[in-house]
Amino acid sequence: MYNPDMEENENEELKASVNAVEFIHGIGSRDLDDCLFADSLVTVSDSGRELGDFSASVTKASYNEELCYLLHANSHGTIDDIPCGTSIEAYISRKLEILEENHHEYVKLEKQTVDRKVHIVRQDDQLVVNRSISEKEGVKTQTHTFPLSYLKGFVSEASNFLILRILARQKTVPEYMTFLSFDADTVLSKSVYRALGWKKQMIGEELVDIFGIERTVFSAKDSPATWHCYFMPDGHLASRVQLGSPAIMKLLHLPFLLDGVEKDHIPMFEKKPLIWEEDMELYSRFLDRKEELKADYSSYIRQHPELKALMADFLQFLLLRKPQDIFSFARDFFAPFASQSPSGKSQNDSQ
């Protein structure tokens, strides 16, 4: 575990370590491009019972004409027969700065669903964090702003995925590498990465060497949260567990390695163009499916005439206002219709 001498002192300035800042500055385009792949794991209990699934993918993208990386991560399943899940969608700069991130967590209890949403967006020289929690009592919202100059060495939950993949491919972790992160209450805290070394894991029918990395996020109010992640040499995630959780995420089947000897053994097939319009079976299926969807959509619209009125109102209001940010405008317009929001009151109104 993390050296207790490294724990945060209340009077100590909250900042990232020098080697953590140098690590981010040393990341090149090649390092990030080597992380453009998808992971897919299953969540199992201690007894081996399948509880859910986990997936994460990184692709190149553009955000406000800035070249960046887009991360999608999802985890859904049941813990102690309680449905729960987490999803993250984020745009990340080449220096692992968050341009925009949406983080959603939910727990479906017997009589209510607890929703926790965090929206982070970079605006000018600051990071704006909007947090909302929906419970039986209603929706609680908070907004915090952080000057970017104060966030040197900051790593969000999204950029953490890229940090781990890069470290796994380098097969080493600098000693006591400490970043700034948000804890579960979106309070600025420290997160520390530590190498766990190598071990073997059965993946499919093969025994594979995997490299482990520990990440601990400290909290001002609660106990630290610690994750153990093990990776294959190419950076693919092999297992992930939060210490204290009754579930673990595991890789069931070996993916093709991205580099190394195994890459030469990937079978190569001649690419043949698929002209589905000329394939009678595919074209017939296409027409059948097309008519099926049209009938289904028409039926739904007939059963819900309010849909046309709602969309007409939205488009009319949109064209009158002509907002620059259509997504934010749509979110605020439809917020009062959300089941978790108090009637006739948007999230912005409650801030």
From TrEMBL:
- Subcellular localization(s) per the UniProt record: Cell membrane; Cytoplasm, Cytoskeleton; Nucleus
Q: InterPro entries from the xrefs? A: CATIP_N, DD_CATIP
Q: Which Pfam families match?
A: CATIP_N (PF21772)
Q: Which domain of life is it from?
A: Eukaryota
Family per similarity comment: Belongs to the CATIP family.
Record-linked PANTHER family: CILIOGENESIS-ASSOCIATED TTC17-INTERACTING PROTEIN, RIIA DOMAIN-CONTAINING PROTEIN 1
Q: Where is the Ciliogenesis-associated TTC17-interacting protein N-terminal domain?
A: 19-246
What this chain does, per the entry, is described as: Plays a role in primary ciliogenesis by modulating actin polymerization.
Q: Does the keyword Nucleus apply?
A: yes
Q: What is this protein called?
A: Ciliogenesis-associated TTC17-interacting protein
Tell me which SUPFAM superfamilies the record gives. Dimerization-anchoring domain of cAMP-dependent PK regulatory subunit (SSF47391)
Q: What GO terms fall under cellular component here?
A: cytoskeleton; nucleus; plasma membrane
| Organism annotation | Phoxinus phoxinus (Eurasian minnow)
BP GO terms, sorted: actin filament polymerization; cilium organization
Keywords, comma-separated and alphabetical: Cell membrane, Cilium biogenesis/degradation, Cytoplasm, Cytoskeleton, Membrane, Nucleus
